[in-house]
Amino acid sequence: MGPAPGEWQNRGSDHERTLHDPWLQTNPWASGPRVRVPGGRDPGSHAASSQFAGLWYVVAMVSDCKVFRGSKDHLLMFTSNVTATAEGNLSVHMEVPGPDGCNQMDAEYLRTGSQGHFRVPTLGYLDVRVVDTDYSSFAVVYIYKELEGALSTLVQLYSRTQEASPQAMKTFQDFYPTVGLPHDMMVALPKSDACSSGGQGAP
């Protein structure tokens, strides 16, 4: 799939790929935040990134990635713990349940401009953006990525709790068809206790 519509369409042509982390063999669709701020504030500012920081649950996702299509029914809910840096980047710690227990990895979401664009070379994420968020309960995250030489689109629903609100789910479901992703490729991720930080008491 190509770029997201509307204001998010100006992605540029400097896409990069570095995809070598063994964690991707377990779950190549790791979460990735980028910040769009309603009201015209700079979505790449440190203040906006700080609001986005904290623990998120990735509760639903949809993708046209070939690997995702073959594995989506086996995926479980996972967490993304976000820390903002003074430069406007995001340091993200992910814990993903897998067949062998809890898989953990850290990734840097590198700011690429003032429009809330990030890239994550270690995950093959060429463009990462937050389509919508209220910071306190949900976020819809758009990712354009390269995996094993193939380009694909991924949209994730982030929630501050393990249960996304009906409005958050509606926002997610209203958005992903606009980037060409069909409803039958969406999966709501089941809860898992394989990762300790996935509990409600995690920071």
TrEMBL record:
Example GO molecular function: small molecule binding
The text of the family note is: Belongs to the calycin superfamily. Lipocalin family.
Which portions of the sequence form the region Disordered? Answer: 1-44
Q: Which domain of life is it from?
A: Eukaryota
Q: Where is the signal peptide?
A: none
* UniProt keywords, alphabetically: Transport
Asked if Ribonucleoprotein is a keyword of the record, the answer is no
A Pfam cross-reference name: Lipocalin
The Lipocalin/cytosolic fatty-acid binding domain covers 53-193
This chain's protein is named Lipocalin 15
The reply on keyword Iron is no
